[in-house]
């Protein structure tokens, strides 16, 4: 299982750490907000992280805007906002596109590619859920959204 998290905005909930335990790798899709979040995630599993629109100063600003990583034989492309997708994943051999930004968890398949937004694991925004995701790459890529908290 690969753990996927996004939009922590400086808040790493204990529930998120618990939900990501056992991951073989963790992917953070931006809006980290505090570099110590990445340090904590690295204690669980190898980590790949990108910056989001709030990561404009300090160490998180040094993260790449996009990342392509191969895990378990599948090519994964990460970016913070799906609106910024400027490649054709199907032409590039990408199996999974991971993004964040909207705080809305989503799993969609388009042209055989899994598009995964794990939602926001940080402070609640509006009435949106607080979530992370588990990504499974054995066979056809699939994901499960994991709810974290019911209150604030």
Task: Give a quick set of tags describing it.
152 residues, mainly beta, Purple Acid Phosphatase, chain A, domain 2, five-stranded mixed beta sheet, 3 helices, globular
Walk me through what this model shows:
The protein has 152 residues and is mainly beta. It has one domain (2-149): Purple Acid Phosphatase, chain A, domain 2 (4-Layer Sandwich). It is 12% helix and 34% strand. The chain contains three helices and ten strands, in the order βαβαβββαβββββ. Strands 3-2-1-9-10 form a five-stranded mixed β-sheet. Strands 4-5-6-8-7 form a five-stranded mixed β-sheet, with no helix packed on it. The radius of gyration is 14 Å and the shape is globular. The mean pLDDT is 95.
What is the secondary structure topology, with strand pairs?
Layout: E1 2-5, H1 14-20, E2 25-28, H2 35-42, E3 47-49, E4 66-71, E5 74-79, H3 89-92, E6 96-98, E7 106-110, E8 113-117, E9 130-136, E10 142-149
Parallel strand pairs: 1-2, 2-3, 5-6, 6-8
Antiparallel strand pairs: 1-9, 4-5, 7-8, 9-10
pLDDT average, as an integer? 95
Within the largest sheet, what's the order of strands?
Answer: 3-2-1-9-10
CATH fold field value:
Purple Acid Phosphatase, chain A, domain 2
Shape annotation = globular
What is the C-alpha radius of gyration, as a whole number of Å? 14 Å
Encode the helix/strand succession as letters.
EHEHEEEHEEEEE
* Major beta sheet summary: 5 strands, mixed
How large is the share of residues in beta strands?
25-35%
Number of helices: 3
The CATH architecture can be named as 4-Layer Sandwich
Helix content: 10-25%
Domain count: 1
Protein structure class: mainly beta
Please report the distance between the alpha carbons of the first and last residues: 27 Å
CATH C-level category: Alpha Beta
> Poorly predicted ranges (pLDDT <50, ≥5 residues)?
none
CATH evolutionary superfamily: Metallo-dependent phosphatases
Number of strands: 10
């Amino acid at each position: 299982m690969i753990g996927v998290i996004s939009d922590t905005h400086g808040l790493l909930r204990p529930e998120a750490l618990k939900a990501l335990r056992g991951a073989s790798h963790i992917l953070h899709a931006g809006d980290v907000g505090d570099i110590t979040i990445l340090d904590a995630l690295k204690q669980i599993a190898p980590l790949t992280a990108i910056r989001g629109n709030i990561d404009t100063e300090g160490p998180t600003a040094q993260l790449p805007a996009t990342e392509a990583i191969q895990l378990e034989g599948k090519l994964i492309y990460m970016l913070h906002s799906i609106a910024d997708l400027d490649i054709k994943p199907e032409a590039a051999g990408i199996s999974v596109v991971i993004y964040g930004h909207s705080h809305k968890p989503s799993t969609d398949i388009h042209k055989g590619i899994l598009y995964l937004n794990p939602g926001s694991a940080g402070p609640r925004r509006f009435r949106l859920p607080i979530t992370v995701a588990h990504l499974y790459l054995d066979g056809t890529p699939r994901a499960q959204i994991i709810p974290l908290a019911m209150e604030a």
